[in-house]
Design a protein that fits this description.
mainly alpha
């Protein structure tokens, strides 16, 4: 355990040194590739499914990885310099870190539990979420006049930011909210004048999965979140049905993503809110059919979706969390 912790700390230090001092793009890209490995390493377990890393060291590594990601992404998103490759691997690193923490914290050994709760420093995590959210919702200045290929490359990077927000699993960290950003990804109209403002279907799939796996805090409007998922599934099913006529959708992996969306609904099927549980059950029936490429898959729940929208605020009493629904 001590050896592994020392190895990962050294790996993070070397990556940081290279990225701080080197301006050569390919060297920076290769240095950044180590970051997802560090994130994945934080999820190590023993054969009996117990966490093996000392939690104090684990959180020190998580803090260092998040701080480095914040620094890299801040510069890359602003285009000073355009370092998309390093930013991509930095975001993947923090995404894997969030997944690892979610996996290992619940299986801490009795000895580890005696150390008490350990979390990322709130200011470091809040900055990370705010940075990723701003990038997801506001196209950067460097996209002005960009070619279609450059915009698609940007959307690939943005999808990784959506995945990182989805992996976080929290409703709020300070004033930053992963859940609110995911909700707004799902409600962005498709007919935007600027192509960079329009989310691809794969980005929205990631947002839907993340929203369904968000921890349901007491002020979180789970019914509104469920309605957003239901509306997204309606649109997903419509595009599935029209895939033969839409050139860009012919090769889209609908069945694969249906399986992921289905798995992501596991928590909602046991939700204490009856209407959320009902939405999950109906959605899973549809997604199970889509997994099998059943052309008769149906999801006609407009009434249930509307019933769930009793309030347009994702957080009760928070006007800043109002969800704007696109016109039909």
């Amino acid at each position: 355990m001590l050896f592994r912790s020392a190895y990962e700390k050294t790996l993070l230090k070397n990556a940081k040194d290279l990225l701080d001092k080197n301006t050569e793009q390919y060297a920076r890209l290769n240095g950044a590739r180590a970051l997802p490995i560090i994130g994945l390493g934080l999820g190590s377990k023993t054969k009996d499914n117990k966490a093996v890393l000392d939690l104090k060291s684990q959180m020190e590594l998580a803090k260092g990885l998040t701080e480095l990601t914040n620094d890299l992404a801040t510069k890359a998103f602003a285009g000073t310099p355009r370092d998309d490759g390093a930013a991509l691997y930095a975001i993947r690193g923090v995404k894997e870190m969030y997944r690892s923490l979610a996996m290992t914290l619940p299986v801490r050994t009795d000895r580890e539990k005696k150390t008490g709760p350990l979390t990322l420093p709130a200011d470091v995590e809040e900055k990370n979420i705010d940075l990723l959210s701003s990038f997801v919702l506001t196209p950067p200045a460097y996209l002005s006049g960009a070619s279609p290929d450059e915009i698609q490359g940007y959307k690939l990077l943005r999808r990784e930011a959506v995945r990182a927000l989805a992996a976080n699993g929290k409703t709020k960290i300070g004033k930053a909210s992963p859940a609110l950003t995911l909700a707004r990804v799902l409600t962005r109209p498709r007919n935007q004048a600027n192509p960079a403002d329009t989310f691809r279907l794969d980005e929205q799939v990631e947002a839907a999965i993340g929203l369904a796996q968000t921890k349901l805090d007491k002020d979180f409007n789970a019914e509104l979140a469920a309605s957003l998922y239901g509306q997204f599934l309606t649109e997903y099913l419509a595009q599935y049905g029209d895939r033969a006529n839409a050139a860009e959708m012919k090769s889209f992996p609908f069945a694969y993503h249906a399986a992921r969306l289905n798995t992501g609904l596991s928590d909602w099927t046991t939700a204490t809110v009856p209407s959320v549980k009902l939405m999950a059950q109906k959605a899973r029936a549809c997604l199970s059919a889509m997994e099998k490429r059943d052309s008769t898959a149906q999801f006609q729940e407009a009434e249930l979706i509307q019933t769930l929208r009793k309030d347009d605020q994702l957080f009760k009493g928070d006007a800043a969390s109002k969800i704007e629904f696109p016109a039909n």
